[in-house]
Amino acid sequence: MTRPDRRDAGQIRALHCVLGQLSRADGSAQFAAGDSSVLCGVYGPVDVRVYDEKLDRAHIEVKLRPATGLPNTKDKWTESVIRSTFEREILCHLHPRTLVQINVQVRQDDGAVEAAAINAATLALVDAGIPLRTMVAAATCAVLPGGAIVVDPTLEEAAGAQSVHTFAFGGDTAGGPLHVDSRGDFAMDEYNACYDICATTAERVLAFMRSAVEGKIAKEALLVGAS
Amino acid sequence: MADIKAVLPGDVMDTGAAARDGAVLRLGPGLVQADERTSAAAAGVLHSDGDLWWVAGNRRRYVAAEGEPVVGVVVARHGEGYRVDIGSAHDALLPLLAFEGATKRNKPSLAIGTVVYGRVVVANSFMDPEIECYNSHTGKSEGYGELAGGFMFKCTLGLARRLIGSTAPVLAALGSELPFEIAIGVNGRVWVHAEGPEKTVLAANAIRNSEYLDAKQCRQMVKELLAR
Amino acid sequence: MANTGPVTFAIEAFKRIHPVEFQRRFLSQETRHDGRAFGQFRETHVAKGTVSTAQGSSTVRIGDTTVVCGIKAEVSEPDVKTPDEGYLVTNVDLSPMCSARFRAGPPSESAQVASEHVFRLFNQNVVDLKELCIESGQAVWVLSADIVCLRHDGNILDAAIVALMAALEDLKLPQAKIESGVVSADKSTGRPLALRRRLFPATYTLVDDAYLVADADDAEEQLATASVLVVVDERGRVANVWKRGAGPISRQSISQCVDVATGRVPKMAEVLDAAGGQ
């Protein structure tokens, strides 16, 4: 089966990421899968509004700006998904009475943008040095009308799909999903197949993110060693 | 540095023989213990020194730790002290009497916006940090206090630590070319003061540019800046 | 029975002071504070046609959670990109009326998230927007579904989905004609809207990281660390699996939730059918 962009069904789009691109944010990352691109800037731990202050842990705030126009309820929904995904993975108890702010700017939306946003947030949090329990990676796949499952669907593929499935996993995919959003018209067999595909894909994304972060660490460590 | 061991959040740390011997391990920044397992919470290079283990990574946001020298800006004055912005989540408190030779009658009066060099004395996550501008054991300033004149700029915490650990080649390169004063806060704020604004800005720029340069490149960069 | 007074007071005080410990005492004994088993849902009551001024309406009660849904049909111009499709607009209103935890003012994040989620479930999946076309490129129906919570005792999303489903089944679209650019609708005659499928929701909530309970009430939701919403249709197909929250819910548990939700469909369908209408 060939897809509009000539990928195989199980092939993800080319991944690309840049760490620490924003000079004023505490941590930032750009994550792109094909034409879906997301920029994420993290501030934290910073001062928190009295209203949000929690005496035993950090407050997490997620702000998402769409590629065009003003944020609407759709973006609020995504914000809530990102926050609930990271709520436990960020070790909030280490920085009580503070705020960790995750700002996500969608640069271009060509499908699977929620997964890209989660991946970008992971990288930005790591870049900011916010203590994390584990790395988080997300992946999306879609079931097409014929029953074929394609991974990392484009906007066009997702629009025509029978169902779209997004999963987020912690560093160990066997530990159960952190976030699940499967919607459309599907049977549990399809759900399970998508689960397996997304788990494998998330592992690959994780490996990609790992090499990116390790590259940055090595670059800095070599300098310390050289001088 | 052949044994660079990069760790990422969630990596379970192999503490090797140390843990098997039942010895006590002391975990520094970037490491957490959960369910009998020690894992990394931040990305960086894993270091160990005896029973002490930590992860060194570069960050931009300062989290106050006791005993560390910081550069801050006075943002408010209260009855009992100043509030100083040291770049951490909460402003630090600087008591009015935490200066060399300060008494109730005779204490320095700092205007809002003054840059000060201090040492963190109280740092825990449940309280606002507290700094002081003298060594309370000896009563001497030991170089801490108001930083008059000069110029303060921000850099990454990693660069600040390298500068203060004198492993940064830029300071040597710069020092051989022009005289300047410097106060380095590990909170990623550096204050420099040289003869005239021109030289001060030059020194500041040289330090800011040096983050990813080695010794040779640093010397070259400083030369180019001076030649302009 | 003279000493029942102080004992009751003590339990009430305990519940308020140590809500977590209060719930744990029940949960560790394999039961819940309102006497339900872990997998037991509260009874769902549905009444259709409860708002006479709306084109379609319903009132749904799940335990003590009560929501009213009213659908207003209005005529509007279609989008240029989709000239033969109408619109569905959903709005979930969580006002201070239903619980002290909600504040007056613009919709809270939870209300917006609920609105958006309900919208995604029904738009095109249940409501065929082409059915809302009056005259292609000229006039289409806009269905504004307002889901108002009157009493909030947990599981608002299930209640909202059942309420919107019932209200859509109750909906009578007036016969509309377009003559020389003017749309006229005869309110006395109405046709029901053909729906693509019937959705039946079921929410499981993970309380205190350890106990997965069905249809949590407000007290249990306060201690929730995660929840999974499963929406299935009458053919046994799944429409949505949505896990939120950081707490661990295993893959197997989610599959079991789907099985239970599917098993509940005949009973829930009966409840919807028995709700009558105008």
Automatic annotation (TrEMBL), chain A:
GO terms for molecular function: RNA binding. InterPro entries: ExoRNase_PH_dom1 (IPR001247), ExoRNase_PH_dom2 (IPR015847), ExoRNase_PH_dom2_sf (IPR036345), PNPase/RNase_PH_dom_sf (IPR027408), Ribosomal_Su5_D2-typ_SF (IPR020568), RNase_PH (IPR050080). One of its GO terms (cellular component) is cytoplasmic exosome (RNase complex). GO terms for biological process: nuclear mRNA surveillance; poly(A)-dependent snoRNA 3'-end processing; rRNA catabolic process; rRNA processing; U4 snRNA 3'-end processing. Keywords: Exosome, Nucleus, rRNA processing. Pfam families: RNase_PH, RNase_PH_C. Residues 11-131, 134-172 form the Exoribonuclease phosphorolytic domain. Belongs to the RNase PH family. This is Exosome non-catalytic core subunit rrp46. It comes from Coemansia biformis. The lineage of its organism: Eukaryota, Fungi, Fungi incertae sedis, Zoopagomycota, Kickxellomycotina. The gene is RRP46.
From TrEMBL, chain B:
It is found in: Cytoplasm; Nucleus, Nucleolus. GO terms for biological process: CUT catabolic process; exonucleolytic trimming to generate mature 3'-end of 5.8S rRNA from tricistronic rRNA transcript (SSU-rRNA, 5.8S rRNA, LSU-rRNA); nuclear polyadenylation-dependent rRNA catabolic process; poly(A)-dependent snoRNA 3'-end processing; regulation of gene expression; TRAMP-dependent tRNA surveillance pathway; U4 snRNA 3'-end processing. Residues 150-195 form the K Homology domain. GO terms for cellular component: cytoplasmic exosome (RNase complex); nuclear exosome (RNase complex); nucleolus. InterPro entries: Exosome_RNA_bind1/RRP40/RRP4, KH_dom_type_1, KH_dom_type_1_sf, NA-bd_OB-fold, RRP40_KH-I, Rrp40_S1. CDD domains: KH-I_Rrp40, S1_Rrp40. The keyword Nucleus applies. One of its GO terms (molecular function) is RNA binding. It comes from the Eukaryota. The keyword Cytoplasm applies. Keywords: Cytoplasm, Exosome, Nucleus, RNA-binding, rRNA processing. Its main location: cytoplasm. PANTHER family: EXOSOME COMPLEX COMPONENT RRP40, PNAS-3 RELATED. Belongs to the RRP40 family. This is Ribosomal RNA-processing protein 40. The lineage of its organism: Eukaryota, Fungi, Fungi incertae sedis, Zoopagomycota, Kickxellomycotina. The gene is RRP40.
UniProtKB/TrEMBL annotation, chain C:
It comes from the Eukaryota. It is found in: Cytoplasm; Nucleus, Nucleolus. GO terms for cellular component: cytoplasmic exosome (RNase complex); nuclear exosome (RNase complex); nucleolus. It holds the Pfam family RNase_PH. Residues 40-174, 203-262 form the Exoribonuclease phosphorolytic domain. Keywords: Cytoplasm, Exosome, Nucleus, RNA-binding, rRNA processing. GO terms for molecular function: mRNA 3'-UTR AU-rich region binding. GO terms for biological process: exonucleolytic trimming to generate mature 3'-end of 5.8S rRNA from tricistronic rRNA transcript (SSU-rRNA, 5.8S rRNA, LSU-rRNA); nuclear mRNA surveillance; nuclear polyadenylation-dependent rRNA catabolic process; rRNA catabolic process; TRAMP-dependent tRNA surveillance pathway; U1 snRNA 3'-end processing; U4 snRNA 3'-end processing; U5 snRNA 3'-end processing. Gene3D superfamilies: GHMP Kinase, N-terminal domain. Belongs to the RNase PH family. This is Ribosomal RNA-processing protein 43.
